[in-house]
Amino acid sequence: MPIQIVMDHTGDTRHEFSADDQAGIDEAEKRFKELTGSGFIAAERTGPGKNKLVRQFNPTAEETLFFPHLKGG
Amino acid sequence: VDPWEAFLLAWLGVFILATLAYVSGEVMANPGLSPAGGLGVRDDNYATPAPNGFYQPQLPNPEEVIRQAHEAVQAQQARADEAEQADKKAKKLLAENLDHTQLASLYANGYFQVRGNRTQRYYRIRSGQTGNVSSENGKRYCANLGVYTHDRLCAYYAKGDVMLAQKIMIENDELEFLRVANDMGEAAPFQPE
Fold first, then answer.
1. Average confidence (pLDDT) over A47-62
2. Does B109 touch chain A (CB under 8 A)?
3. Which residues in chain A are closer than 8 Å to B101, comparing Cβ atoms?
4. Burial code of B151-171, b = ≥16 C-beta within 10 A, e = fewer?
5. What is the ipTM of this complex?
6. Do A11 and B165 touch (CB under 8 A)?
7. Residue whose C-alpha is closest to residue A3's, from A56, A46, A69, A59
8. Sign of CA dihedral B67, B70, B76, B82
9. pLDDT (tens digit, 9 = 90+) per residue, B80-111?
10. Three-state SS at B93
11. pLDDT tens, B162-187?
12. Which of A65, A48, A70, A45 has its CA nearest to residue B103?
Protein backbone atom coordinates (compact mmCIF):
# COMPACT_ATOMS: atom_id res chain seq x y z
CA MET A 1 0.00 0.00 0.00
CA PRO A 2 1.53 3.37 -0.98
CA ILE A 3 2.52 5.58 1.90
CA GLN A 4 3.43 9.23 2.30
CA ILE A 5 5.76 10.02 5.21
CA VAL A 6 5.97 13.62 6.37
CA MET A 7 8.78 14.65 8.72
CA ASP A 8 7.59 16.78 11.60
CA HIS A 9 8.33 17.57 15.24
CA THR A 10 6.91 14.18 16.31
CA GLY A 11 9.46 12.39 14.11
CA ASP A 12 7.11 11.74 11.21
CA THR A 13 3.46 11.33 10.31
CA ARG A 14 2.45 8.56 7.92
CA HIS A 15 -0.47 8.61 5.48
CA GLU A 16 -1.37 5.40 3.71
CA PHE A 17 -3.70 5.23 0.75
CA SER A 18 -4.91 2.50 -1.57
CA ALA A 19 -3.86 2.53 -5.21
CA ASP A 20 -7.39 1.24 -6.03
CA ASP A 21 -9.20 4.03 -4.24
CA GLN A 22 -9.52 7.14 -6.42
CA ALA A 23 -10.58 9.30 -3.47
CA GLY A 24 -7.47 8.23 -1.56
CA ILE A 25 -5.27 8.96 -4.57
CA ASP A 26 -6.84 12.40 -4.98
CA GLU A 27 -6.26 13.15 -1.33
CA ALA A 28 -2.64 11.96 -1.59
CA GLU A 29 -2.09 14.14 -4.66
CA LYS A 30 -3.58 17.12 -2.86
CA ARG A 31 -1.27 16.48 0.10
CA PHE A 32 1.72 16.19 -2.27
CA LYS A 33 0.93 19.54 -3.89
CA GLU A 34 0.29 21.26 -0.56
CA LEU A 35 3.54 20.03 0.96
CA THR A 36 5.76 20.70 -2.04
CA GLY A 37 4.03 24.05 -2.50
CA SER A 38 4.83 25.02 1.08
CA GLY A 39 8.54 24.24 0.78
CA PHE A 40 8.82 20.52 1.47
CA ILE A 41 11.03 18.34 -0.71
CA ALA A 42 9.59 15.03 -1.91
CA ALA A 43 11.74 11.93 -2.33
CA GLU A 44 10.63 8.49 -3.48
CA ARG A 45 12.32 5.40 -2.12
CA THR A 46 13.65 3.46 -5.08
CA GLY A 47 15.55 0.68 -3.35
CA PRO A 48 17.54 -0.19 -0.22
CA GLY A 49 19.28 3.02 0.79
CA LYS A 50 18.22 4.73 -2.44
CA ASN A 51 15.91 7.71 -2.90
CA LYS A 52 15.25 10.10 -5.72
CA LEU A 53 13.85 13.61 -5.57
CA VAL A 54 10.51 14.05 -7.34
CA ARG A 55 8.50 17.08 -8.33
CA GLN A 56 5.39 15.34 -9.64
CA PHE A 57 2.95 13.16 -7.77
CA ASN A 58 3.35 9.49 -8.63
CA PRO A 59 0.40 7.37 -7.44
CA THR A 60 2.38 4.16 -7.96
CA ALA A 61 5.30 5.18 -5.72
CA GLU A 62 5.39 2.80 -2.78
CA GLU A 63 6.92 5.32 -0.39
CA THR A 64 7.29 9.08 -0.68
CA LEU A 65 9.13 11.02 2.01
CA PHE A 66 8.60 14.74 2.58
CA PHE A 67 11.15 16.85 4.44
CA PRO A 68 11.77 20.59 4.74
CA HIS A 69 14.61 22.39 2.97
CA LEU A 70 17.94 22.21 4.74
CA LYS A 71 19.37 25.46 6.05
CA GLY A 72 22.83 26.43 7.17
CA GLY A 73 22.61 26.24 10.93
CA VAL B 1 26.46 83.57 70.53
CA ASP B 2 27.10 85.34 67.28
CA PRO B 3 23.73 86.62 65.97
CA TRP B 4 24.60 85.49 62.44
CA GLU B 5 25.41 81.95 63.66
CA ALA B 6 22.12 81.86 65.57
CA PHE B 7 20.28 83.08 62.48
CA LEU B 8 21.86 80.42 60.21
CA LEU B 9 21.28 77.63 62.76
CA ALA B 10 17.62 78.64 63.05
CA TRP B 11 17.14 78.52 59.24
CA LEU B 12 18.93 75.16 59.04
CA GLY B 13 16.56 73.78 61.70
CA VAL B 14 13.53 75.09 59.84
CA PHE B 15 14.80 73.51 56.59
CA ILE B 16 15.36 70.10 58.22
CA LEU B 17 11.92 70.12 59.86
CA ALA B 18 10.22 71.12 56.61
CA THR B 19 11.98 68.32 54.71
CA LEU B 20 10.96 65.73 57.29
CA ALA B 21 7.37 66.94 57.23
CA TYR B 22 7.26 66.75 53.44
CA VAL B 23 8.69 63.21 53.30
CA SER B 24 6.37 61.83 55.98
CA GLY B 25 3.39 63.49 54.28
CA GLU B 26 4.26 61.84 50.94
CA VAL B 27 4.54 58.41 52.52
CA MET B 28 1.30 58.73 54.44
CA ALA B 29 -0.57 60.00 51.40
CA ASN B 30 0.74 57.16 49.21
CA PRO B 31 0.78 53.83 51.05
CA GLY B 32 2.17 52.14 47.97
CA LEU B 33 5.44 54.02 48.17
CA SER B 34 8.06 51.60 49.27
CA PRO B 35 10.32 52.60 52.13
CA ALA B 36 12.83 50.12 50.72
CA GLY B 37 12.47 51.22 47.14
CA GLY B 38 12.80 54.91 47.73
CA LEU B 39 10.39 57.72 47.25
CA GLY B 40 8.49 57.81 44.03
CA VAL B 41 8.89 54.08 43.37
CA ARG B 42 5.60 52.20 43.32
CA ASP B 43 5.98 48.71 44.72
CA ASP B 44 2.80 46.70 45.16
CA ASN B 45 4.58 44.28 47.45
CA TYR B 46 4.47 47.06 50.03
CA ALA B 47 0.95 48.28 49.26
CA THR B 48 -0.63 47.17 52.49
CA PRO B 49 0.86 48.07 55.84
CA ALA B 50 1.10 45.31 58.44
CA PRO B 51 -0.75 45.74 61.75
CA ASN B 52 2.43 46.97 63.34
CA GLY B 53 2.43 49.89 60.91
CA PHE B 54 5.46 48.80 58.90
CA TYR B 55 5.13 48.04 55.26
CA GLN B 56 5.78 44.35 54.70
CA PRO B 57 6.35 42.62 51.35
CA GLN B 58 3.33 40.58 50.28
CA LEU B 59 4.74 37.19 49.26
CA PRO B 60 2.86 35.02 46.75
CA ASN B 61 0.62 32.30 48.11
CA PRO B 62 2.90 29.27 48.74
CA GLU B 63 0.25 26.85 47.44
CA GLU B 64 0.00 28.86 44.21
CA VAL B 65 3.78 28.83 43.83
CA ILE B 66 3.88 25.05 44.34
CA ARG B 67 1.02 24.52 41.88
CA GLN B 68 2.74 26.62 39.21
CA ALA B 69 6.06 24.82 39.75
CA HIS B 70 4.30 21.45 39.51
CA GLU B 71 2.65 22.47 36.21
CA ALA B 72 6.00 23.67 34.84
CA VAL B 73 7.69 20.37 35.72
CA GLN B 74 4.82 18.37 34.15
CA ALA B 75 5.01 20.44 30.95
CA GLN B 76 8.78 19.97 30.78
CA GLN B 77 8.40 16.22 31.28
CA ALA B 78 5.75 16.07 28.52
CA ARG B 79 8.10 17.90 26.14
CA ALA B 80 10.96 15.54 27.03
CA ASP B 81 8.72 12.48 26.44
CA GLU B 82 7.59 13.90 23.10
CA ALA B 83 11.20 14.55 22.02
CA GLU B 84 12.19 11.01 23.04
CA GLN B 85 9.35 9.52 20.98
CA ALA B 86 10.31 11.73 18.02
CA ASP B 87 13.93 10.56 18.31
CA LYS B 88 12.85 6.91 18.27
CA LYS B 89 10.65 7.40 15.20
CA ALA B 90 13.37 9.34 13.39
CA LYS B 91 15.97 6.65 14.10
CA LYS B 92 13.60 4.02 12.70
CA LEU B 93 12.93 6.08 9.57
CA LEU B 94 16.66 6.67 9.05
CA ALA B 95 17.39 2.95 9.45
CA GLU B 96 14.68 2.15 6.87
CA ASN B 97 16.41 4.44 4.37
CA LEU B 98 20.00 3.23 4.78
CA ASP B 99 21.52 0.24 3.02
CA HIS B 100 23.14 -2.54 5.03
CA THR B 101 26.65 -1.08 4.78
CA GLN B 102 25.55 2.37 5.89
CA LEU B 103 23.50 0.97 8.75
CA ALA B 104 26.34 -1.24 9.95
CA SER B 105 28.75 1.69 9.81
CA LEU B 106 26.35 3.90 11.75
CA TYR B 107 26.08 1.35 14.56
CA ALA B 108 29.79 0.49 14.55
CA ASN B 109 31.37 3.91 13.97
CA GLY B 110 28.66 6.48 14.66
CA TYR B 111 28.64 7.65 11.03
CA PHE B 112 27.71 6.47 7.56
CA GLN B 113 29.10 7.39 4.17
CA VAL B 114 27.28 8.81 1.15
CA ARG B 115 28.47 9.90 -2.27
CA GLY B 116 27.70 13.27 -3.81
CA ASN B 117 25.86 12.94 -7.13
CA ARG B 118 27.75 15.83 -8.74
CA THR B 119 31.36 15.74 -7.58
CA GLN B 120 31.36 11.99 -6.80
CA ARG B 121 33.04 12.98 -3.54
CA TYR B 122 32.32 10.95 -0.42
CA TYR B 123 30.81 12.49 2.68
CA ARG B 124 30.53 11.17 6.20
CA ILE B 125 27.34 11.94 8.09
CA ARG B 126 27.97 11.55 11.78
CA SER B 127 25.29 11.12 14.39
CA GLY B 128 24.33 14.71 15.15
CA GLN B 129 22.58 17.77 13.83
CA THR B 130 25.12 20.56 13.70
CA GLY B 131 28.40 20.45 11.83
CA ASN B 132 28.05 16.67 11.53
CA VAL B 133 28.85 16.35 7.82
CA SER B 134 32.41 16.16 6.53
CA SER B 135 33.81 15.50 3.07
CA GLU B 136 36.69 13.27 2.09
CA ASN B 137 38.77 16.32 1.14
CA GLY B 138 38.61 17.68 4.71
CA LYS B 139 35.72 20.14 4.87
CA ARG B 140 33.05 20.28 7.50
CA TYR B 141 29.47 21.41 6.83
CA CYS B 142 26.46 22.39 8.83
CA ALA B 143 22.96 22.04 7.37
CA ASN B 144 19.99 21.61 9.64
CA LEU B 145 16.23 21.27 9.42
CA GLY B 146 15.35 23.59 12.30
CA VAL B 147 13.00 26.37 11.29
CA TYR B 148 13.75 29.75 12.79
CA THR B 149 11.58 32.83 12.96
CA HIS B 150 13.75 35.83 13.76
CA ASP B 151 15.92 34.39 16.53
CA ARG B 152 13.51 31.78 17.86
CA LEU B 153 13.57 28.09 17.01
CA CYS B 154 9.93 27.33 16.16
CA ALA B 155 10.14 23.83 14.74
CA TYR B 156 12.26 21.00 16.01
CA TYR B 157 13.33 17.99 13.98
CA ALA B 158 14.89 14.93 15.53
CA LYS B 159 18.50 14.00 14.83
CA GLY B 160 17.64 11.00 12.64
CA ASP B 161 15.37 13.13 10.45
CA VAL B 162 18.11 15.71 9.94
CA MET B 163 20.66 13.02 9.03
CA LEU B 164 18.25 11.44 6.54
CA ALA B 165 17.54 14.78 4.88
CA GLN B 166 21.31 15.42 4.62
CA LYS B 167 21.83 11.98 3.06
CA ILE B 168 19.08 12.39 0.46
CA MET B 169 20.22 15.88 -0.52
CA ILE B 170 23.90 14.94 -0.91
CA GLU B 171 23.03 11.88 -2.98
CA ASN B 172 20.49 13.66 -5.18
CA ASP B 173 21.23 17.39 -5.20
CA GLU B 174 24.75 17.84 -3.87
CA LEU B 175 25.13 21.36 -5.24
CA GLU B 176 22.02 22.53 -3.43
CA PHE B 177 23.34 20.95 -0.23
CA LEU B 178 26.67 22.75 -0.65
CA ARG B 179 24.84 25.99 -1.46
CA VAL B 180 22.77 26.04 1.72
CA ALA B 181 25.23 24.42 4.13
CA ASN B 182 27.47 26.56 6.28
CA ASP B 183 31.15 25.91 5.79
CA MET B 184 32.39 25.02 9.26
CA GLY B 185 36.06 24.98 8.39
CA GLU B 186 38.41 22.07 8.19
CA ALA B 187 37.86 18.47 9.21
CA ALA B 188 40.16 15.48 9.08
CA PRO B 189 40.30 14.17 5.50
CA PHE B 190 39.40 10.50 5.15
CA GLN B 191 39.77 7.64 2.73
CA PRO B 192 36.42 6.42 1.37
CA GLU B 193 35.56 2.99 2.68
1. 94
2. no
3. 49
4. eeeeebbbbbbbbbbbbbbbb
5. 0.95
6. no
7. A59
8. negative
9. 999 999 999 999 999 999 999 999 999 999 99
10. helix
11. 999 999 999 999 999 999 998 888 88
12. A48
